[in-house]
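Q: Sequence in, structure out?
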Amino acid sequence: MDFQSRFGNNVARCEWAVGYTFYDKALCASALNAATDERALCLANDTGNLFMLETHHFLALLGEAAVVELLCTDRDATGINGAIWNLIRRDVLCPCNLAWRGFERGLDSCVTMSHGSGPVTIDIMATTVAALLGAVRAEAGTGELAALVDRLQLVSPATFAALEVLRPLDEWDSYDFDLLFGP
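A: Exactly. Output:
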C-alpha cells in the first residue's frame, strides 16, 4: 500500500485536530506511528520502494526537549524562580496532561497501532502528542511550536492555581505572565 493510502487520512485528521498543516507528511505520520509491525510498512510514492515508518519515540523525546527549551526561554524572560518553573514544566509535560489534550482532540483515531495492541492508552497518546510537538519543532521551529502549545492549551488553569498557593499575592505584579503563557 502506498504512503497516501495507508497514512493520508490519519495525517489529514491530525492536521485538522491540531491546527497545523505539515509540509512533510511523513514526519506527521511518524509522530502518529506506534506500530512496529506491517502496519508501519508502505511504498514510497516517489520511488516505489517499501519502507518502514519510524515509530514516534524519537520525535517524542525531541518534543519534550523542545517544550522544556521553550519554557526555559519564557522563564528567563519572566524571572520566575526555579521551583515554580519546575512545577510548570511537570504540569505541562505530565503524561496525563498530554494524553488528555490528545484524546480531547480525537487524535486517538489518528494513531497507527500494531495488530492486537488494543485501544490507544494514556501512555501511547502522551507519547503521540509529545511526538507531534517534536515534529512541529523539527519542521517549523520554536515559533510554531509555541503556537501549537497554546492551541493545545498545554498550560492549564490548574497551573495557575498551583502558582497562587506557592507565591504570595503581593509578588504577582512583578511578573509578566503574558510572556510565558500568551495573552
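The chain has a mean pLDDT of 85.
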